[in-house]
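User: I'm curious whether this sequence folds into something compact or stays loose and floppy. Could you predict its structure so I can see for myself?
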Amino acid sequence: MPDIVKNPVINADFPDPDVIRVGEYFYMTSTTMFLMPGADILRSRDLAHWEIIGHVFDLIGDEDEYTLSNGKHAYARGMWAPSLTYNKGKFYLNFACNERKRSLLYIADDPRGPWERTEMGDFYYDSSLFFDEDDKVYIVHGNSTLRLTQLDPATWGPKEGGIDRILAVDEKDQPLGYEGSHLYRLNDRYYLFSCHMPKETQGRKTEVCFISDSLTGEFKVKTILNDCMGYNRPALQVAQGGMVDDTNGRLYMFMFHDRGALGRAPVIFPMRFGEDGYPMPDTPDGSIPDTFAGVPGVNGGYMDMRDHIYGDDSFAYDSIDEMLKTSPWWQISHNPDEENIGFTKEEPGLFIRTSKVTDNLLQARNTLTQRCMGPKSEGEIVLDASGLKVGDCAGLCIYSSHYGAIAVTRDETGYKLVRLETEAVGETIMGDKDFYTRKPQIETICELSDPVVRLRVKADFTKEPDTCTYSYKQGDKWIELSNVHKLYFRLDMFIGARFGLFAYSTKQTGGCAVFRDFRISPM
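Assistant: Here's the prediction. I'll summarize afterward.
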């Protein structure tokens, strides 16, 4: 009997999932935005227990947006809504970067790589790459207006004389038009899944499905999901996904669930077709189940996500490339500045050396991040701040557009333990226009006689608003700070909360922080 897991199957930020099966394995990918390396590839035998096996690319590009240069950044941009498919021995993954004119396509023989990159012949927003049974290839793409375009594999652009038609047009002035397409063919019918947010749901996402007997025929639509799974914040719903089968032909839906500051977590459950022929959860009342037993008769292979989705680290590596490949739950914000991040040899540790002068954490290079896990989690680290220069700041944060951190600063009189925060303006999801340039509020906790200190941050995603708190170790005792920092999911960065190790300089470059013995503990 498979182990029963609680939905979401991974209680962490893996947004815009796409799931396929090849042989006995299922593969999942998700949006990674500005985090490098990007395009997670996860693998599972039973759909319930997953592991990260690698990433599709190391970098998207070297433009100013990706190197945090000249006032530019790629927050809320970069890699969006990937489409993963398999055809005749090859894996295909494509996605749009909203700052680029053309979508990117990667092709591999093995999902662990290497992946060969090419530019597609056009820009395809929130797309679904689809190989039909006659070997013709298509892509469904767009927001509000969904278009089907036949592709020429020589250019991966529109095929001359091929199908290029509008499949659906949403009503005007909807909060979120049709997007997040997933196209399938099953039993000679075509099924197109799409996310939606009609006015009447008052900001809640739904999932629709269009059905047609041919790619040239009418696609008839029905809302198939309008469900928050009883979550304590009902505006946060389950949507944006598709379906996948197992080796015995049983079908499952995969979606994501908006879960506040935690991010968007993947939900998977058995499905069936209703009397009207539309997909629905395979439960007596058609609701999404709170638990999932996985594929019947298949052993997932492990029960704990530690060292599969997240992990502790002693930082005993020879290079950053080695760390990012062997511990793929780590990702760096924007492109790594490899001359200024690496590992100490005498005692294992990660060093981050400052290479630019800035006055806030979001503009710093080389911030190393790892997803927070729900419903609660804590991260802790030993920070050796002895290499900081006057004006430097380094520490452990909850990484978001309104970050919170416990850190060490250095001024002319010595080292100080501080609380470092930026506050969200209001509770709107749209975010704050000045998030990237806003200076943090810095409050001194105490002076430090020893610049080596163990820091801890706890994140709580169980009630609204989500929060984080801080503590530091003094001898054998943890000193808890009374302050509580509020966390929200915002579109200005468009990712869920992460633990982050950071260092930046406000006066001069060249200061260095060393981090040792990272620990993460979901609760």
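Summary: DSSP finds two helices and 39 strands in the chain. The helical segments are 64-67, 320-326.
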